[in-house]
Design a protein that fits this description.
About 30% of the residues lie in helices and about 30% in strands. By secondary structure, it is an alpha+beta fold.
C-alpha cells in the first residue's frame, strides 16, 4: 500500500491549499521571486513492514507581476493545489528552477519511491539481482 501527501513551505511556514482566489493570490505573491520547499511524506506498507520517508525539492519562482498572477488564477489550475500552483501545467511558467525531484513537486516523489521499491524488492524493481 502507498500513501503520499505533499505540501509547500516558505520560510518554515506551511502554505497548504488555498480556499479561494484571494488566498491563492496571497500565496503566489509570497512565492514570487523566492525559493520554497515542496515536501512529500511517503508511507509504503506491506503485510509485515512499513517504510516512512520524506522528500524535499526546492523550487524557485521568478518574480511575478500582478497581471501574471491574475491570468494564472483565471485558468483555475490553482484550485486544490498546495502553494496554489501546478508545476505540471501552466504553473511551470511561474518557475525559474527546480533543485531535486521534479515529480515530487507534481505530487509523487518518484525517485524516492523507486529507490525504496528497488531496495525492498531487488530484481523486480530497479536493476538489482
Amino acid at each position: 500500500m502507498l500513501g503520499v501527501d505533499t505540501d509547500v513551505f516558505l520560510d518554515g511556514r506551511r502554505l497548504g491549499k488555498p480556499v479561494d482566489a484571494a488566498g491563492a493570490t496571497a500565496m503566489l505573491e509570497l512565492l514570487s521571486g523566492r525559493t520554497h520547499e515542496v515536501v512529500s511524506g511517503l508511507c509504503l506498507r506491506g503485510d509485515a513492514w512499513e517504510e516512512l520517508h520524506r522528500a524535499v525539492t526546492r523550487v524557485e519562482f521568478r518574480p511575478l507581476a500582478a497581471a501574471e498572477i491574475e491570468r494564472y488564477l483565471a485558468v483555475g489550475e490553482w484550485e486544490g493545489r498546495a502553494g496554489a500552483y501546478a508545476i505540471q501545467g501552466l504553473g511551470a511558467s511561474l518557475v525559474e528552477q527546480v533543485a531535486g525531484d521534479y515529480l515530487n513537486v507534481v505530487g509523487l516523489p518518484a525517485a524516492l519511491l523507486v529507490r525504496l521499491l528497488a531496495e525492498r524488492f531487488p530484481g523486480r524493481y530497479g536493476f538489482g539481482g
